[in-house]
Amino acid sequence: MRIHRDVLDPFLRDVKLESRSPDDPVVVLHTPYPWELVGTGNYAAVFAHPDYPDVVVKLYAPGRPGWEQEVDVYRKLGETRSFPVCYQAEPYYLVLKRINGISLFDCLRYGIPIPPQVIEDVEEALEEARSKGLYPHDVHGKNVLMDQGRGYLIDVSDYYKNIPDSKWRDLRRAYYKIYLPFLKDRGWKFPLWVLDGVRKGYRYYKKLSRLFR
Hints:
With 213 residues, this protein is an alpha+beta fold. It folds into 2 domains: 5-97, Phosphorylase Kinase, domain 1, CATH 3.30.200; 102-211, Orthogonal Bundle (Transferase(Phosphotransferase), domain 1), CATH 1.10.510. It contains 6 helices and 10 strands; from the N terminus they run H-E-E-E-E-E-H-E-E-E-H-H-E-E-H-H. The protein has helices at residues 5-14, 67-77, 104-110, 116-131, 167-183, 192-211, and strands at 16-18, 27-30, 36-40, 44-48, 55-60, 86-90, 93-97, 102-103, 144-147, 150-153. The strands form 3 sheets. The protein has a 5-stranded antiparallel sheet, with helices on one face. The longest helix is centred in the last third of the chain and has 20 residues, at 192-211.
């Protein structure tokens, strides 16, 4: 599904965003009406239009790299159950199929059980990506979605990087060793400060492990 130029061109002309640091999410200064901001990453922001509920526009901030590589990743993925599909791409934006659902991060935050099927769906999707010559990278609880008990992935922008990344392997191990036997059916809600503390502690642990490897 493509977005009509009469809708897309004014948005691209009027939207304002900037990246102040490659380590922090981009800052959206102006979102033209009736578009809405869906989310932000370190290099790009994602927007939606009410007349096109099945797609989103991912727009890169000025001066940030990665657009060409992401377009190539979507070209290699093609039509797939578990990943978004790219319908339209021009510098420096992509029109992507919108995948609905709740992130695994928010499942923990709101006490929503995560069934094993979600984890296995992600495993199959990552294997599919590898079979197409890609290198799944930076797969974590905020870019894995659950919808009706099935797992989906968003944000494939780093799948071209052929460098080791253990985030998903570690998350999967924690799921089966800790979450599934002890937490899944308790309905506990974990506050943001706890989840952020775990995330920061994990980063610190990985940094130390690299230093002493």
